[in-house]
Design a protein that fits this description.
Layout lengths: L1 H24 L3 H4 L1 H6 L6 H11 L5 H23 L7 E5 L2 E5 L3 H22 L9 E6 L2 H12 L8 E4 L4 E5 L5 H15 L5 H10 L3 E3 L6 E3 L4 H10 L6 H6 L8 H17 L3 H10 L8 H8 L5 H19 L1
Parallel strand pairs: 2-3, 3-5
Antiparallel strand pairs: 1-2, 4-5, 6-7
Helix pairs in contact: 6-8, 8-9, 9-12, 10-12
Amino acid sequence: MLTRAIILVVGPGFLIAGCYFLTVGRPSQTVQAAPVARSEHRDFDIDELHAGVEEGLVPADSANANVDHRSLTIACDERARELGRHLDDKDRIIVRPPFVIGGNLSEAELDRYYSETVLPTKRALDLTYFDNPPDEPLTLLLYSNERTYREASWKFDRRDTANYYGYYIRTDRRIVVNVGTGDGTLAHELTHALGHVDFPDMPEWFDEGLASLYEEADFSDDGLRLNGLSNWRLNHLLNAMQKRRLGTLESLISSREIREERQAVEYAHARYFCLYLQERGLLPFFYRKFRDRAGSDPSGLRTLCEILGTENLDPIDRNFRQWVIALYEQVRS
Ligand SMILES: [Zn+2]
């Protein structure tokens, strides 16, 4: 232990001295030092090293990964066959593990939703938040218009979906969406579905805040990250603020469930608080820390206070509301 402590303390001093010696003290020696350095290495086979570059790119546990992937593909094929018995004759199904994607679209259109929306969204969310990939099929039912979507949601779930464009049935791992309204709802429900695999105990305030953040979002230039943008939910937030009806952040976060009669305001509240954390670069960090300690801090309140360096959320709440007003001034102009 003592030796280690001495090395840690003394090491950097040696390094600095060495650099100084090589680069400043005797500059001509920097080139001549090479033979000495070479003699410190064993002889390696350059051809073997090159050959190992490609082989080294195969994950060490690829054998297991293949087995898991195979069993997931088999489960997806089974899910597709089961789904085929319930869809209309004209509907189509494609299998893209872990997704089974069906609906009243052609196979080419379903594939386009997969490659242009589902896959890029999943890739960006996985990179930013999710460490546990789905090990069971996720079903996506995509409908091209209001009529077919409402018929399907009634047939499958006895739901009247007049007031929303999509939903996720957690027990079935199944999304039903009217994609005729754009990609936003699909991204919202996809965030729920993937989030529940990674963080099963995510409380509703954060679940809805994160999912609704991505219903309006841009990809970064390299396509690897998603950045949530302001959307129509800002009106609900501002309306509640103006009427002095917006609850505190602490009450939003502490309540186990979002009340149905307050849904529009509380979804907006949660969404814009996630956007606020995103703008400060804290959202992915909060997500992972929160997920990993949800057993002892189920609402996330303590983790949030710790990350933000505050005893309670009052100063953050004040700052958040000022930020919302500034955002409104910015998007209005
Ligand atoms: Zn939702």
